[in-house]
Amino acid sequence: MIPLSAAEIAEITGATPGPDSAGVDMSAVVTGPVVVDSRQARPGSLFAALPGTRADGHDFASRAVAAGAAVVLASRPPGVPALIVPDVEAALAALARAVVDRAGGLTIAAVTGSAGKTTTKDLTAQLIESLGPTVAPRDSYNNEIGHPLTVLRVTEQTRYLIAEMSARGAGHITALCEISPPLLGAVLCVGHAHAGEFGSIDEVAKAKAELPAALPPDGAAVLNADDQRVLAMAQYTAARVVTFGRSPRADVRATDVVLDEAGRPGFTLRTEAGSAPVRLRLHGEHNVANALATAALAGQLGMDVTAIAAGLSAATARSRWRMEVTQRPDGVTVVNDAYNASPEAMRAALSAVAAMARGRRAFAVLGHMAELGAQAEELHEQAGRQAARAGLAGLIVVGEQASPMLAGARADRSWRGELLQVPDAAAAVAVVSERVRPGDTVLVKASRAANLERVALALTGEVPL
Ligand SMILES: Nc1ncnc2c1ncn2[C@@H]1O[C@H](COP(=O)(O)OP(=O)(O)OP(=O)(O)O)[C@@H](O)[C@H]1O
Ligand SMILES: [Mg+2]
Question: Which ligand is nearest to the CA of 342?
Answer without folding.
Answer: 1
